[in-house]
Design a protein that fits this description.
Elements lengths: L4 H5 L6 H24 L2 H6 L13 H25 L4 H26 L6 H18 L7 H32 L1
Helix pairs in contact: 2-4, 2-5, 2-6, 4-5, 4-7, 5-6
Length: 179
């Protein structure tokens, strides 16, 4: 039987426990993925591929590591607030994050194929982010794709990534002088 959009809308609301477990899995998968990108030297890999767009954004290895910590901490903060408050927006926010995970994993796969070189993050993206993102999207209530939802999701993702890289670029020199 093929599920219709209407039947998808009428599926039962997820329990608080299922939402919490999905947030925990999301934060853990993101942390593992970001760890793989950092430990596998994504900034060096990008430097070796001059055709890659946005090379200057990633900065040096330490700066990029700080940006990854900021992104992970931001998603963790959203998850803690969503779970602790049992906010009505929790499941929708989780689905938005899941779509970002799917896009991230997909970009690692596509760029690995185009470069004929495994991009750091492709392993965890393929075995963690992509399946987890798909499970979340399929098991949580469907996202209402309105113009404000799309704009908010895209802007949030861009601000989170670009903002973390910018903050890391500012903080990295300060941190290196302290240590």
């Amino acid at each position: 039987m093929v599920a219709t959009a209407e039947s998808a809308r009428t599926k039962s609301e997820p329990t608080a426990g299922r939402i919490a477990a999905s947030w925990v899995a999301t934060v853990l998968a993101l942390a593992v993925h970001n760890g793989e990108e950092w430990m596998s030297g994504l900034t060096g890999w990008i430097a070796e591929h001059p055709w890659m767009p946005g090379r200057a954004l990633h900065g040096d290895h330490a700066q990029f590591g700080l940006a990854l910590v900021i992104v992970t901490a931001a998603v963790l903060t959203i998850a803690v607030i969503a779970v602790a408050s049992r906010a009505r927006w929790s499941a929708e926010a989780l689905v938005c994050v899941a779509y970002a995970l799917i896009i991230n994993a997909g970009s690692h796969l596509v760029i690995s194929v185009l470069s004929w070189s495994p991009m750091p993050g492709v392993v965890s993206g393929s075995i963690l982010l992509l399946p987890l993102g798909l499970v979340i999207v399929r098991t949580m209530p469907p996202l209402r794709w309105t113009v404000p939802t799309v704009v908010t999701t895209v802007l949030s993702a861009v601000v989170l990534v670009a903002g973390s890289l910018l903050v890391a670029a500012v903080l990295a020199p300060m941190i290196s002088t302290i240590s």
